[in-house]
Hints:
Blueprint (H helix, E strand, L loop, with lengths): L7 H12 L3 H14 L4 E7 L5 E6 L39 H8 L1 E7 L6 E7 L2 E8 L4 E7 L6 H6 L3 H18 L4 E6 L2 E5 L6 H9 L1 H4 L2 E3 L12 E7 L11 E5 L2 E3 L2 H10 L12 E6 L5 E2 L10 E2 L2 H19 L3 E5 L21 E4 L11 H7 L13 E6 L3 E6 L2 E6 H18 L5 E11 L2 H9 L1 H6 L3 E4 L4 E8 L7 H10 L5 H16 L9 H13 L13 E5 H7 L4
Parallel strand pairs: 1-7, 11-13, 16-24
Antiparallel strand pairs: 1-2, 2-6, 3-4, 3-6, 4-5, 7-8, 9-10, 10-13, 11-12, 14-15, 16-17, 18-19, 19-20, 20-24, 21-23, 22-23
The structure holds adenosine-5'-diphosphate and magnesium ion (MG).
Adenosine-5'-diphosphate binds next to helix 2 and helix 3.
Amino acid sequence: MPIVLLDPQVIARIAAGEVIERPSSVVKELVENAIDAGATQIAVEVMGGGLESICVADNGCGIALDDLELAFQRHATSKIQNFDDMFALNTLGFRGEALPSVVAVADVEISSCQTGAVGGGKMEFRDGKVFKKGSLGRSHGTSISVAHLFQSVPARLKFLKSRHTEAAHIAMVVSQYATAYPEVKFTLASDGKTSLSTTGSGRLSDVLMQIYGLEVARNMFDIAQYGGGGSAAIKISGMVAAPAIVRSNNNYISLFVNRRWVTSRRLVYAVEEAYHGLLMIGKHPIAVINMEIPPSDIDVNIHPTKSEVKIKDESEVFGAVQRAVRQALMQTAPVSTVTESSTAYHLEPAYQANFVQQRPIVTMYGQHVSVSKTMMGYDALQSFSSQTPRAILPALRLLGQLHNSYIVAEGPDGLYLIDQHAAHERILFEKLIRERNTAQLSVQALLNPETFDITPAQAAVLSTHLGELSQSGFLLEEFGANSYIVRTVPSVLSGKNWKSMLKELLETTGKENSQFMEHLMALSACHGAVRFGQMLTEDEMRELLRQLEQVDLPNTCPHGRPALMCLTYEQLGKEFKRV
Length: 579
Ligand code: ADP
Ligand code: MG
């Protein structure tokens, strides 16, 4: 084939492919333009998951009549003038690519009127070209309707998911922008049904209530209230959910850099790390993290959709996020309290598709017992010292045992139910950490040292961690190729099935040393703890309560499972209709 210059229409369609991947990309670009135009109200209406039509209307500054056609040309923008402006950016857009890209792959109608102008203009585009042009009277602002998306690009259509999925992506986009801009009133209607409507009050908590419902919103804590985080240059704000509110994937961690919605696996990890030890394995938190970073320290021009940004000092931001979230959690992490869900009115979640709402009859939340300031997770191993523990639980009076599994106790504020296994696990975990840090580990020498046979893969893991194992009370000596002699075990495991515990430990390959150590301690605590379903004597239960009153984080077991909950007198009064 000879070399030819491509037709401009072909070039436009190819370029559009980078920016407009699916219907939600159109919504994202149009909403960003509306925000950049200073709109205080943005209404999004879609039909058929955006494939039939998308309409975004705003009350922003509008486009001058004379500029209307220019706005649809490639690289036409009012947001920057030269390259350096990109590093002092205070708008979401700057590439001048969105409108021409949409026109290249859909039919578009725009009407706009600039603030202060007498009348506005209207234009229609078909097949990438101007089809109609005229003037009209309207209030200031802009409305753009997009129809027949990707009809001219059948290959792209084939890649799209169901309309339902596309609608969910759109809801996600609008929810994220509503979260980043609580002062803007957003509405989203899908197939004629309003699925999101924010108040524009400026309060993030109001937006979260619309998106996630009352139950979640009232369990979200303000990060800034607890000191925020970061250096003078980096400011972290936002809200995080109490550990009792969990999700099964990490899509509910929203990140914004200078109010731009971004994706970053590293920063998601920073948030998850801050919850370490408070959530069950496989569970994820809900969080909104706003990062304010000087524009000169970030590069937003690394991706056509600008969904990723390069941060000059990412480690600093990582640390600031982690600290801010952890601080907020440590100040607020409550003992789970039983509340009636009938008082929580039901709000349709904005993005149902991958949103599994938990609506048990009895839900858990609470805020009245604060947790001491010690950290959790491996940091705790380092920083734990004898003066840190502080009585957090009130003194509890034993009432009895329920189902051979729960300890029932009375506290000054109500009835306490304690998961005996989870609580004992927490007690032993903290005991092991304390003993290790003070080098006062209590070990049990085995009268008859036992041999321990393992697979070659397990042996490989074991040989790299012999040091950590001996620090935690397991003295092992090599005895042939895949066999070890065990001389001592931690005394919490004496008489327990420590062999199965060691095997479980060795299944976890690839852990870093710090994680290995913590995992080892958590597993020892788990295997050493009283079982769920085990009958306990009154003395044993009293002793367990007394020890639980001394621990640092009584709410959860080391894996994040709740260890206790409180049914307050106030709640009892409500349930029995006495108040
Ligand atoms: P960019 O946002 O990168 O500048 P776009 O193609 O998205 O590029 O938009 C081109 C220009 O059209 C913008 O710079 C802006 O001046 C104008 N524009 C687009 N949408 C709107 C809107 N909703 N309100 C006001 N002006 C708009
Ligand atoms: Mg734009």
